[in-house]
Amino acid sequence: MDQTWQSLKGQFLMAMPGLGDPNFYQSVTCLSEHNPKGAMGIVITRIHPEINGRMIFNELRITAAVDAEKIPVHIGGPVHSNEIFVLHGAPFTWEGSMMVNGEVALSNSLDILEAIAMGRGPSAYIIALGCAGWGPGQLESEIRGNAWINGPYSKSIAFEMEVERRWEAAMQGIGIDPALLSDTAGHA
Fold it and tell me: Domain containing 97: what range?
């Protein structure tokens, strides 16, 4: 393995303006896994226009005690688009919780969805359909090609800020003014 290789797990991945894929235009992805075999994450900047929490709970035959139609469902990425993922803060005791960093985990078990439906889930969460995924070396190549830039995870950006402001805030969090970015890649 390359001695300079470094995992970006637990960080934000922000799309650069020149990234042409409409799935990722001005997106922020929370990288849930990144190792030499590839990477995966949940896009936190896309809300599904037609699906809400009530529909997910009904599909899974989960009784909801909360106003579930107000729970947004995110488009977590174009991979496994029929699978449900929950990016969430504490607690991390759900059956399928995989720690991403010290502040956030990824789960896809029924127990967390049942708890959310009853108003007893984590206070901070995103329900997403699908995820983003990269094969071995693919993400690193795309970063070198100026498609992505990484930065630190932020709970306030991930869970508290309006979706439309997350990309700009994540970029500003690493000292970049998005208005000054070019949409063409260059090499020095």
Answer: 12-178
Residues 6+ apart with CB under 8 A from 69: 52, 53, 54
CATH number (domain holding residue 99): 3.40.1740.10
> Model confidence over 122-150: pLDDT tens digits?
999 999 999 999 999 999 999 999 999 99
Instruction: Specify the length of the chain in residues.
Output: 188
Asked if 116 contacts 53 with a C-beta cutoff of 8 angstroms, the reply is yes
Quick one: which of 137, 148, 145 has its CA closest to 29?
A: 148
Domain count along the chain: 1
pTM: 0.92
Is the separation of the CB atoms in 91 and 125 below 8 Å? no
* Domain contains 152: yes
CA 133 vs CA 62, 82, 120: distances in Å: 28, 14, 30
Strands 72-75 and 125-134: parallel
Angstrom distance (rounded) from CA 103 to CA 88: 8
